[in-house]
Amino acid sequence: MATSITSMNPKDREKFLEELEFPFCDEVNKYEKMAKIGQGTFGEVFKARHKKTKKIVALKKVLMENEKEGFPITALREIRILQLLKHENVVNLIEICRTKVTQLNKFKSTFYLVFDFCEHDLAGLLSNANVKFSLGEIKKVMQQLLNGLYFIHSNKILHRDMKAANVLITKSGVLKLADFGLARAFSLNKNNQPNRYTNRVVTLWYRPPELLLGERNYGPPVDMWGAGCIMAEMWTRSPIMQGNTEQHQLTLICQLCGSIVPEIWPDVEKLELYNKMELPKGQKRKVKERLKPYVKDPYACDLLDKLLTLDPSKRVDADAALNHDFFWTDPMPCELSKMLGQHGQSMFEFLAPPRRAGRPQPHPALPQPKPHPSADSSYQDRVF
């Protein structure tokens, strides 16, 4: 280019920007927005239709507000990871689109990630009392979720935001792990140097104890804890540990999983926050006992116990979880399409109505529900 864009006069620069072509990044106006289906710290998600082909997609807006110049590094990381991860149980990124630069948007494009559309998210389904999962259907949900985790972990990717709202399910019953906005590649320690990843990840109610205690050298077990929380939710229909703060979340974990002590978890006392948090002493492990009233299946209770293991080095991995007797005893995992076919409407956490009168109430001994920490609430009852 003979003339640098910075040396152009403002009029010429505006004309140049408006006429600029991007052959590998189409304009988003080839899609027509139909409805907003998600909102959170990550931005907005819309259901949209391709104007020519009529294909239904999901458009996820890339937040650009905090960017002085350039493209958000977190979005670049998410795009790179999604381009790498092509699997039936991982959401499919179709393309990246942009808005045309004009005077109205101060010559700054808005970018959208375009995904295959999924009709439901698991939080939306669980918040609807009319959606009933049989034991075989719960097995199918968990089998697909663990298949997705096995695949991403084999490709050295951590999800770092496992929760029911980030588990999408198509109307034909195919589960997709979604929202890789906090995901990152991980590696084994080089030259015995521990990794120093941020521990400010994972929505509080699904955050594992090692992150709450300040661990920065972590790996796939952080996602497996979230898988355990989601699995329990398949029966309780509500997140099982709803802390207000990191301290409260750790207290709830100890009350369910037992006291966090070096006898159970060697070297836990070396974690940065171990002596700074008030950790309940003398708590017995009660995972099976507390979940038994909800989860009648003994194999399910056993797998939950292995997923919600305090010491991450002893927590079951995705491969071992998929081989657990839970998936290999009657009833066997069965397709979700028949059950989902009875529900014509999309169900997303964002669209779920607030709790209505006349819904089944929590057991009087259990605390009352409270809003979800990360978005508009749609969860119904607090369990523990």
TrEMBL record:
Would I find Nucleotide-binding among this entry's keywords?
yes
Location of region: Disordered: 353-384
- What's one GO BP annotation on this UniProt entry? positive regulation of transcription elongation by RNA polymerase II
- Which residue intervals are annotated with compositional bias (Polar residues) in the record? 375-384
UniProt feature, compositional bias: Pro residues: 361-372
- SMART domains in the record, alphabetically? S_TKc (SM00220)
Give the matching InterPro entries.
CDK (IPR050108), Kinase-like_dom_sf (IPR011009), Prot_kinase_dom (IPR000719), Protein_kinase_ATP_BS (IPR017441), Ser/Thr_kinase_AS (IPR008271)
Q: Which domain of life is it from?
A: Eukaryota
Task: Could you list this entry's UniProt keywords, alphabetically sorted.
Answer: ATP-binding, Kinase, Nucleotide-binding, Nucleus, Serine/threonine-protein kinase, Transcription, Transcription regulation, Transferase
**In the record, what terms sit under GO molecular function?**
ATP binding; cyclin-dependent protein serine/threonine kinase activity; RNA polymerase II CTD heptapeptide repeat kinase activity
Primary location class: nucleus
Q: Where does ATP bind?
A: K60
What is its subcellular localisation?
Nucleus
Looking at the UniProt record for this protein, which Gene Ontology cellular component terms does it annotate, in alphabetical order? Answer: nucleus
Residues in Protein kinase domain copies: 31-327
Family designation = Belongs to the protein kinase superfamily. CMGC Ser/Thr protein kinase family. CDC2/CDKX subfamily.
State the protein's name: Protein kinase domain-containing protein
